[in-house]
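#random but structural
TW: two for the price of one
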Amino acid sequence: MIKHERIERRRAYIFLSIGLVIVIYPFLLMVMSSFMTATQLLNNPQLIIPVPFTFSGYIGLFKRLDILNLFKNTIIIAGSVTLLNVFFDSLAAFALSKIKFPGRDALFGFMLFTLMIPGVLFFIPTYTMLYHWGWVNHYRALIFPSFVQFYSIFLMKQFMEQIPDELIEAAKIDGASDPRIYASIIIPMSLPVISTIAILIFMGAWNDFFGPLLYLRSPNMWTIQLGLQMFASSIPSSDAQIVWAGEVVITLPILILFLFLQKYFIQAFTNVGFK
């Protein structure tokens, strides 16, 4: 049995190592390409290790592209969308999982039904509505239509249902109101799923390209995704290294956020917080 377990473990390590290489290779290629010159990228695209290393891509990123302003715009939008979703989605999930009220199951069923409708069907009516409201070319056109997501409510509700009802009842006996229960019991015990939702929503808002392209007209309001794409479509091939450097810079915030919150991300799907 011990020998068989060792063999199975070695096989698992081999498959995991292969998967790691497949996942890491594109990211490594992107990072290495950001340190190459345009000549190396165009004439020898199969080169992996740049010889010599050059920081011209990163220098050009700050000289040729208003990267700090693009970062500011993206953080405002992605941060606002994330904070609003975490607050309102957790409130809705708390109500649907721990508060009994007429029509609760019907409301939740309707929310699940909406998840089956392709989001692309709402683009035209949403744009028409926001255009008549005068919201086009404003941050609120990207923030407020996205401040609640039913899929996030669903994940939070499923997680909160595992919180023992005895804790809620004991808190009510001690005189705690629903807002106090939400803030003192539900939120601290739901940190794994809240962190997971925060990662997913921030990543979606950070990487969003179509929304800013549709609603933001002024270049000084562009997000980093839109700004880099517009820059890449207008520059000559001699500045290709700037685009690669921009892709690395775009990826780093998401990577750093995940590294800090990965413990909660794993707990949200393994339920270890209740074991």
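TW: number two ↓
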Amino acid sequence: MFEPVLEQFGLAKNEALIYEVLLREGESSVAVISRKSSIHRRNVYDSLQRLMEKGLVFEAFSRNENLYRGVSPQKFEDMWGEKKQVLDRSMPHMMSLFESVPQQTELYEYRGMEGWKNYMRDILSTGKDFYCIGGKGGWLDPRVKDYLPIFLKGVEENQIKMHHLFDAEVEKECPEILKYVGDNYKFLPSQFSTQSSIDICGDRVLISSQLETGQFSADDFTLTVIINPQVADAFRTWFRFMWEGLK
């Protein structure tokens, strides 16, 4: 249940399973841990050793056999805070290095869910108004929806205005997305629906593929990113042409 979350903190699969067993069962022997986690006893010993080195499990000695107990989950919040402090100290210098390199025309791809988050961060980093052609409501896909509140907070803080031309199906099949995007949206005629969308923000054009209404059709979907001010301006012009032609 918590395995994906725990793996984000550097736990291997077996370590995450064992820690969750200890959360559920409390102080337990290797035999109990092995049975509850379906991990061979030999591998349980190895994983327990690594968990103890990480400060997530401790050993309680008894007369009959050694028992193991997981520390409070609060430990993960402490770990997160420590990492953030390290990142915060390094961030100004890293950003200075990144911004010191002149931006030329670039073409690259983002892939999958983490790529999608990078795409949303790109929108925030420009601080410019956002335009979408052929929107599908993909922001509500359960695999990325958890990031949506963070993104919307950034949109508000950076005073980014969003403008959407949605596919016609969104109005009936995915109306929930409309409450997140503000008042600047219209719907394209149904005969012009596709499985792709184009987003324009600042000097960037982002082309998404493998989209369906309210979701992505594959885990390994791609987002093609073009960084070119003239190309971005051209797409904004075409957006305005379509926008003004629609009711």
